[in-house]
Amino acid sequence: MSDLSYALEVVPETALQFTLTRNDVSVNGTDPKSDGTARCVMTLKHTGKTSDHIAFKVKTTQPRRYLVRPNQGIVAPGTTENVTILLVEKDKQMLLQSFDRLGQSALDHSKDKFLVQSCAVKQELADAYSSKKKEMAQIAAAGDNNAQEMSKFTKEISEELTNMWNVANGSDETPIYNKKLQVRHVVAPGPEGSAPTSTSRSGGGRGTEKTPLDSMTPEQMFAEITSLRRKYDELVTFSVNLTAERDILNNTLEQTKRDLNREMARAKDNRAEAALAGQAIGAGGGNGKSSAGLSILYFFFVAVLFFLIGVKGSQMDAIVFLYDVPVLGDVLRAEL
Fold first, then answer.
1. What is the pLDDT of residues 279-330, one digit of tens each?
2. Are the C-beta atoms of residues 117 and 178 closer than 8 Å to each other?
3. φ, ψ for residue 316 (rounded to 5)?
4. Are 71 and 27 in contact (CB under 8 A)?
5. Measuring CA to CA, which residue among 63, 56, 60, 102 is closest to residue 79?
6. Is-above-0.85 flag for pTM?
7. What pairs with residue 67 in β-bridges?
8. Nearest 5°: phi and psi at 148?
9. Pairing mode, if any, of strands 177-187 and 113-120?
10. How far is Cα 163 from Cα 155, in angstroms, rounded to an integer?
């Protein structure tokens, strides 16, 4: 991808290294008056493969951990732009504590990442950017306390660049080059006169400085013993917490098994009761059908019996008195 004309050359190329220092320790090769802030400088170079100005934007997966200045801008052909990245003090102290507990292995394989985007910009925007940068430089050189005016220029530049990036990201017409960078955290060597060691013991050993016991002062021995005691207490606490969590999980698992067994037994009883109820309903339906059949047969038998009695009585003139019954007598005469 380095042959792309709109791609900036990024230094360092693959990873950004932040050196963590104690508040009372200065790193070799740095200003002894430094405030101890962990920082890294990234250089963006215009390769000169195009006469267009190239805009850049720096993003990170941890925006609250790092301060990037400037996080966006425009680089003219043949020039470079330095981007300073600062590690927030609170996060630096957290990383140092992790180093004290586990050594360099705690800082390796950091998941923090940076992304540098670059694309070509129109000449109008590049001229406006250069003009405002010159005005800001003149104000700064004059030494006037015009913080409000400087803030105004900075805001205007930021808004113009943000709008440009919004348009570029939402359109396929402007090609964008993306450069990803990893992050490394290392701890600075200790005070003068001590031999720093960066080796870590297997199983999460410490990367702290080692001094032979014979040459240790009482203060150093006491500090070493205190450190070991603190680490031992942390391991004991961690083991106790793990044991407690294991017991809680076991109890939860047993309770879940008991609840499951109860639910399975209840479901089995419900199925058995439903089966019995179905059988009872089936038996009741059969009896009802039998009773209905018997009732019809009984009614038919009684009807036939009364019919025969009527025929026999009519032959013996035993039902002559029925002719005197109102309505019934009329019916009988009509049949005759």
1. 777 666 555 556 666 678 777 777 777 776 666 666 666 566 666 656 656 6
2. yes
3. -100, 10
4. no
5. 56
6. no
7. 86
8. -65, -40
9. antiparallel
10. 12
Count of residues in the chain: 336
Q: Facing residues of 74 across strands?
A: 55
Q: Which two tokens stand for residue 236?
A: 């004991």
DSSP letters for 50-91: SSS-EEEEEEES-TTTEEEESSEEEE-TT-EEEEEEEE-HHH
Residue identified by tokens 């992050």 is 183
pLDDT tens-digit readout, 74-100: 999 999 999 999 999 999 999 999 898
Structural tokens at position 209: 């400085």
**In Å, what is the CA distance from 93 to each residue of 73, 75, 186?**
31, 35, 13
Is 114 within 8 Å of 59 (Cβ atoms)? yes
Q: Which amino acid is at 124?
A: E
Neighbours of 225 (CB within 10 A): 10
Task: Give helix 89-102 / helix 218-315 axis angle, nearest 10°.
Answer: 90
On whether the CB atoms of residues 80 and 14 are closer than 8 A, the answer is no
The distance of Cα 77 from the centroid of its chain, to the nearest Å, equals: 42
Of 26, 34, 81, the closest CA to residue 53 belongs to 81
